[in-house]
Amino acid sequence: MRDSEVLVTHHKALMELSHNIGFIEMPRPRKLAALVELCTRLLGIQRASVWLFPPERDRITCEWLHDEEQPGHNSCVKEENTGYDLFRSDHPEYFQAITAERVIAVEDAPNDPRTRSFHQGYLSVQNIHAMLDAPIFDGEELSGVICLESHEHREWSVPDISLAVAIADTISLMNTHEAWLRSKRALEYVRRYDSLTGLANIDSLRDRLGHLLRKIKRRGAGSLALLWIDVDRLKTINDGLGPQAGDQVIADIGQRLRDIQLAGKDFIARIGGDEFALVIRNYTLPGFLIEVTREIQERIRQPIRVSDQDLNVSASIGICHFPGDCHEPEELLRGAEAAMYHAKRQGRDRSTLFDSEIQTTARSRFALESELREALKSNSLDVFYQPIMDRTGTHLESMEALVRWQHPQRGWLSPIEFLDVARSAGFMYELGACVLRSVCSHWREARERNIPLPTISVNLSAEQVLVPDFPELVKEICDHQEMPVEALQFEVTEDSIQGDFGVIGRVLEKLVEAGAELAIDDFGTGYSSLSRLKYLPFSRIKIDRSFIKNLPDDEDDCAITLSIIGLARGLGLFVVAEGVEHKAHEAWLFEKGCDYLQGYLYSKPLPFSEIIGRYYSD
Ligand code: C2E
Ligand code: CA
Ligand code: CA
User: Fold this and answer.
1) Atom of ligand 1 at shortest distance to CA of 598?
2) pLDDT grade, residue 421 (50/70/90)?
């Protein structure tokens, strides 16, 4: 045969092997075995092997060696024979050659300067006279070698070299493909699993539910229940002991849920910060499910040891059932979540089965959520203003902006009716931006009409103060309407500043640097640490209206209000009383030295035009 014919025959044989579907699906060792075996057969040589560079690159290590004397067997077994590592320091000429020349075709290996160093311990022992090495690449990098060995002297022909290179290239492709599969699997893991607990995430849960529901529908038999497990008060642990403690609690609970043995237990996922889901198949009678939730709650209630402290945690559980309560995976999730909220409202550490009443609430919540999304998109939220008066109750000092929503069917909605939905749907940041845009455009309208508005106070949510770029957004919105940031004041509640102190501190500092004033809202209702109050740049405190309501008759409320006024004095802050409804409130507060007053006694929150009409028409 002519060289060219041999070449074609070899390449055809290799193509037939490597493009065979059986080959593609083989595990790596079998692939390597098949390739080197093919090589020895086609070239009529005795040995062929595959070698790899380990990450240190100080040696090459044999991965697979085919020896005609032991067919079907990997002859480079490492445990017995350390000789199958070849070190760069022992064979510098060979390493130099394989790196520089790439293909090494050696007719007389014992005497060739490139392979001479193998003579004593290797070539003579194995009776090798000729060697042909071709490089395996990973991209640009040399990652290994394929090595063909013959017992006879051999002048390597072009078809020999071409086959060796083609087999080395096939292994390169295998390596690339395997690396791709590994990264795909790693990515898949990140996409489908939660890294803290190692449990599946909500996307995987959705897929699982979809699969199970389809199966039950197809068979017309079977049932399943979804348990939505929400850890109570994790926020308190995060705030009090730091986020690592919170993470540890979550990881621990994840492990407990994994360990717990339950009939019909099918799938567990971590579906949110402090939320887990558990799928039960077939064992779904209500009585049984209630037992199951008791057992889970009992497990979760066992103290969790975190940095030498025993923490006691509880969980609220909502249960939704298929068939019966819902038809689709998404409904199952929503139903279980709604039942969980219901359980929480009953007090913590409870469980609730989904029912028609919960269904109605869940439906209207769901509807409200999508309507609110639309309202935000079309910028159709409105802002009302409530005056804040001086201490005598006669002069307008500033005014508070309060969001309102004119619902197409239900008329004006107060924030109490929709902020909760906005919060759980993740709309708070956008809602805050909407309010600020309205305030700024009102302010501009007033300026154009030469109306000197006082400072406008805007409520901020936790979702806003936790975003490092929030102050930039404020400046941007103000700039857009040529409104100075100095014309604004911001109110944050004690609860909304419980998160990451570093971030919140910087956000609030920046707002103050930009010229805004800062008030702490609903003071006395949340848990605020005095140190936060001292180190954050507040200039006023708003006493919550629940303490004002029963003044001056309720002794406790009098004492609390007095002490807040005293505290403010001590810290050099102004005090505002909210919820001033009666002359008696006003008189008492004036006498005790409260600086500003806000409440229905002066005005309810009013639309912008009415506020202007009331205070600025002569
Ligand atoms: P808040 O910041 O404490 O606002 C004062 C609330 O008390 C307002 O309710 C106001 O109408 C009401 N109020 C004022 N004077 C009196 C009074 O004399 N007696 C009684 N009983 N109530 C009085 P509103 O407008 O329904 O707002 C409720 C809460 O919604 C606000 O409480 C605030 O926490 C939140 N909110 C309102 N607008 C926004 C906003 O734009 N962003 C954020 N994040 N929260 C807002
Ligand atoms: Ca407020
Ligand atoms: Ca308030």
Assistant:
1) 15
2) confident
Q: Does 521 contact ligand 1 (Cβ within 6 A)? A: yes
CATH number of 3-189: 3.30.450.40
Return the pLDDT at 472: 97
Which residue type does 28 have?
Answer: R
Cα(452) to ligand 2 centroid in Å equals 22
Beta-carbon count within 10 A of 201 CB: 18
Q: Any idea where the domains of the chain sit in the sequence?
A: 3-189, 202-354, 369-616
Point out the ligand 1 atom lying closest to the alpha carbon of residue 384.
Answer: 25
Rounded to whole angstroms, the Cα distance separating 574 from 579 reads: 17
Question: Does the Cβ of 386 fall within 6 Å of ligand 1?
Answer: yes
402 C-beta closer than 6 A to ligand 1:
yes
Q: Mean pLDDT for the chain?
A: 89
One-letter-per-residue 3-state SS of 495-524: HHHCCCHHHHHHHHHHHHHCCCEEEEEEEC
SS3 at position 145? strand
CATH architecture of 369-616: Alpha-Beta Barrel (3.20)
pTM listed for this prediction = 0.56
Ligand 1 pocket: which of 542, 578, 608 to mutate (most atoms within 8 A of CB): 578
Q: What residues form DSSP beta bridges with 520?
A: 492, 541
Is ligand 1 within 6 A of the CB of residue 334? no
Q: Which residue has the higher pLDDT, 492 or 68?
A: 492
Q: Give the 3-state secondary structure of residue 398.
A: strand
* Band of residue 460 on the pLDDT scale cut at 50, 70, 90: very high
Q: How far is the CA of 453 from the centre of ligand 2 (A)?
A: 18
pLDDT, tens digit, 9 for 90 and up, residues 48-61: 999 999 988 899 99
Q: Superfamily assignment of 202-354 in CATH?
A: Reverse transcriptase/Diguanylate cyclase domain (3.30.70.270)
Query: Above pLDDT 90, what percent of the chain?
Result: 54
